[in-house]
Amino acid sequence: MEPVVEIKDLDLGYDDLVVMRGLSFSVKKSEIFVVMGGSGCGKSTLLKAMIGLNPPRKGEVLYDGASLWGVDEKERYDIMRRFGVLYQGGALWSSLTLSENVALPLQLYSNLSSQQVRDMALFKLGLVGLDGYADFYPAELSGGMKKRAGLARAIALDPDIIFFDEPSAGLDPLNAKMLDDLILELRDNLGATIIIVTHELASIFAVGDNAILLDSDTKTAIAQGAPKDLLANSKDPRVIKFLTRGEKQGVE
Amino acid sequence: MKIMQSEKLAFDYSKPGILQLKLSGDWNFSSGLPSVDEVFTQLDPRPDISSIGFIVSQDFKWDSAFIAFLFKLNNIAKQKNIQISVQGFPPQIEKLLKFAPPQAEQVISQKTIDEPFLDMIGVHFIAARDATLSVLDFIGDIALTFKRFAGGGVFFRKDDFLVIVQKCGVDALTLVSLISLLVGMILAFIGAIQLKMFGAQIYIADIVGISMVRVMGAVMTAILMAGRTGASFAAELGIMQANEEIDALRTLGVSPVEFLVMPRVLALVIMMPLLTIYADLMGILGGFIISTGFLGLNPVEYINHTTAAVRLSNFSVGLIHSFVFGIIIAVAGCYRGMQCKRNSSGVGEATTSAVVTAITAIVIATAVITFVCQVIGV
């Protein structure tokens, strides 16, 4: 199967600071791909390069063969229309209700009537388990509900690819599990390709089909494969240490 | 019988008791789709219909907009006891329909509850009373903090204080210069039009000097500082409130009034009189430029008239104004910032209301001080 996303020889950084060098991997259609690594290793920097917020220093981010950073701004926005992004804190617009948050992308990019936009927004909120909360403002919600509402907004336009930035961060175990289940359901029911940036091991093993482990010391990817296979077969002590929370040190 | 409705949707009644919807073309959000009401308008004159089915053409394409359409159709049909059969659709559509939960009752947000009129009056009255008490409490807190400050028992960062002094003093000089100079010029022009009729243009110096030193210098500086520094205080403290930084201070046992509010009030109370004196001089300079440059008055005569007209009492009244305005702007900015809601719109509201509160209070204070000065003959 042709990859949907390809990262080729990517260098990332800010000004003089190099965060990551020579990063390459690919993601297949309807795969749940996890970018994992410790705090400060460059996961979020990679995500920003993949969703069109910050350009890489070198290399290419390809979606179905089309380069995100090798085209003009208008074409880049066309590619970005295929994305849905769930930001770490939900990033909901605080002056809008949940249904208005979800409706905004539909108002911008659809030809539906205002009633149909509202129906769509309610439907999407229903998909993430927030039916009944359409007229709530973000400030009235718990952290888990905010993330689910952010997800409803991310899937408003039926994106091919959904990005999650630390989806379980700050959630209690039950809400984190609920969000993991939701990610699996979205993949199974919408057929979306999902890319998750996280260091939460429970989520990595629960949902990840494939993963890459970034390392801040070498500024490269030090492992790639299915998380369970990496845990079972990797000989690299850094990989074993990360995947077992340091309980097993591996062979030095 | 078949009734064509649109290119995408047609109705087929060939089977007794069943309305068959013939779907064709693109049913997605980029091309738009028919309203669910179109289907139910067909059912109104036909009570015999007990079921809705679908016939899907080869060119039928869909996305989740169609699922939302089906979802709504299903919910309304249930209420009308009409069966919906989704047989013949791609399996993914059936899967998505099952994934979507049954339509729930809308939970009512606290912000959308409509209250009876009398209740609203009561709520507003109680809110106004609470707000007044809260402002008095805040002012009392600041007063007690200053009392402790006089005894040397207050914890705040001296560096922060100096930065605030710089921001609300030196950094404001350019704007104060420009506005005061222009106000002095405007006063001179307006005075000239009237005084020329009596051949008394030299009294422009008196008008500009007294009005700038006594009120205008202080008021114009205060309005500038309310928009500039008062708004900045509200935004800074508002963002700190939203980011839980103020909570973090409280949990450390540090009073936010002591650590954040007092340095700001102190800085502005010190800087406002200095800025006002500067604004007075700039205003007089503006009047001097117009009078000597455009109206042909003698420069020495102008300066002599100004020094003779502006007395110490005028200067003192101006300083009292500026001192009071400094307190008003700092307290309004800090109070609105501390009361800020924990979201981005809250910060905007806090900033706006800090400026509005300060300017309203400045005008009221000016009226009160002017009245008191009139009564006591200053």
Short overview:
The complex is a heterodimer of chains A (about 250) and B (about 375). Chain A is of the alpha/beta class and about 250 residues long.
Q: What multimeric state do the chains show?
A: heterodimer
Count of DSSP H/I helices of chain A: 9
Measured as a percent range, the helix fraction of chain B is: 55-70%
Number of domains of chain A: 2
Architecture overview:
The complex is a heterodimer of chains A (252) and B (378). Chain A has helices at 43-50, 73-80, 98-109, 114-127, 143-154, 173-190, 201-207, 227-233, 237-243; strands spanning 3-14, 17-28, 32-37, 58-63, 66-67, 83-86, 161-165, 193-198, 210-215, 220-225. With 252 residues, chain A is an alpha/beta fold. Chain A folds into two domains: 1-44 and 53-82 and 161-252, 3-Layer(aba) Sandwich (Rossmann fold); 94-158, no CATH class. Chain A has a six-stranded mixed sheet with strand order 6-7-8-3-9-10, sandwiched between helices. A four-stranded antiparallel sheet of chain A has the order 2-1-4-5, covered by helices on one side. The longest helix of chain A has 18 residues, at 173-190. Chain A is globular. The two termini of chain A are 37 Å apart. The relative contact order of chain A is 0.17. Chain B is of the alpha/beta class. Chain B folds into two domains: 2-99, STAS domain (Transcription Regulator spoIIAA, 2-Layer Sandwich), CATH 3.30.750.24; 155-376, no CATH class. Helices cover 68% and strands 7% of the residues of chain B. Chain B has twelve helices and seven strands. In chain B, helix 6 (173-196) packs across helix 9 and helix 11 (312-338) runs antiparallel to helix 12 (344-376). Chain B starts with a strand and ends with a helix. The model of chain B has no long low-confidence stretch (mean pLDDT 88). The chains are: A alpha/beta (252), B alpha/beta (378).
